[in-house]
Amino acid sequence: MSTDDTLEKKAWRELMASPLVREQQLAFACATGVPLTLAPASAHALADGTYCIKGCLGGHSGALCQRKLLRAEQRAVTRVEPVQYFCPSGLLKIIMPVFINGHYAGMLLAGPFALNALDGHQLAKLVGRLDKLGLSDRAAQLQTTWRFTPRLSSAKCHAAGILLRMFGKYLEEYGKQHLLARPTRASALLEKIESFLAAGQHAPVSLKEVAACVNLSPCHFCSVFKRQTGLTFSQYRMRQRLEKARELLGDGRRRVSDVAFEAGFGSIPHFNRAFRRWFGCSPSQYRVRTAPRNPGQENPNPGVAQYRALAAIMSQ
Question: Model confidence over 218-247: pLDDT tens digits?
Fold first, then answer.
C-alpha cells in the first residue's frame, strides 16, 4: 500500500462499517439473492472470514479462489469497470472497483451465482479441470456448492450488474463527502500555513511562497506536507476551497457564481468541474439536495433512490 491513498483507504474501511452502507449492501443481497462483500483494495487484505475465500471445495481451493480474485481485481482496476469471472467451482462472480478521489480504495464482490443448472456434462468438465489443479474427486462438493448457490436469469444478471455499478458510484460520492467532513488536527506547520493563506485571503499564492513562509525548500515542503496530510498542497487547497463553497451554498441568497469566486475559484467552469468531481453533482444540485424541507417531505440522495427503485424491481 502506498502512502498516497492512505486517507482514501481509511475512508473505505469506515464506509464498510457505516449503517447506511450496510443497509444498501443488505438491499442488494435481498433483491438479487446474491451475496455482496465489501473488501479493501487488494484481495491480500481479505479477512479469513470473508465469504468464499477459504474455498468451498476443501484442500487448497481457497488459494485458487484468491488467485482468481486477484487477477479479476487487476483487470477491474485497469479497466475502471465491473469485471465478471468464474471461480474454481465454475460459478460466476462480479467485482466492482471503487475509487475515492481517484485512488483505488476498495471493491464490491458479488457472488457466487449460476446462470444455469449443473448438468452431467458440465459436472464432468469441471471435475476434469479440478483434477488438473490437484483437486481430484470433488464431484460431491461441486454438486453441494451448486445446490446452495443462487441462480439468476440473464436479465437479472444484467440488472444485478447495473445495481452494482450504481452502488459503486454512490460509494465514491459518499467517500468523497466523508473525507471532506473528516476533522483535521492541525500541526504547527499547518497552522502556520493556514495563517499565511488567511492573511492573503484569495490572492494567488505559489507553492514557492508558501514553502518560504515555513523556511523550507519547495521540494522539502512538498515531502513534509504530503507526509503530514496525505495530500499534495494543490489537493489540500482544493479541498479547502470546496469545503468553503459547500458552506456558502447553504445560504440560498448567494448566487452560485458568487459562491465560486468567494471560495477562491478563478472561473465558474473550473468551479463546476471541481465540485462535481468531489461531490458527484453540480453546485446547484447540491443546493437542492441540502435545502431545508417541510416536515414529512423527503430529500433522498438520488443515487440511493435510483438504487432502491431498481432493487425493488429485482425483488418482484
Answer: 888 888 888 777 678 888 888 888 888 888
**Domains of the chain in sequence order:** 3-181 (3.30.450), 188-290 (1.10.10.60)
pTM above 0.70, yes or no: no
Question: Strands across the sheet with 83-86, in order?
Answer: 36-40, 103-113, 92-100, 83-86
The string of DSSP letters for 262-306 reads HTT-S-HHHHHHHHHHHHSS-HHHHHHHHS---TT-----HHHHH
18: buried, middle or exposed (CB in 10 Å: 19+, 13-18, 0-12)? middle
CA pair distance 162, 306, nearest whole angstrom? 11
What are residue 92's DSSP bridge partners? Answer: 86, 113
Contact yes or no for 174/7 (Cβ under 8 A): no
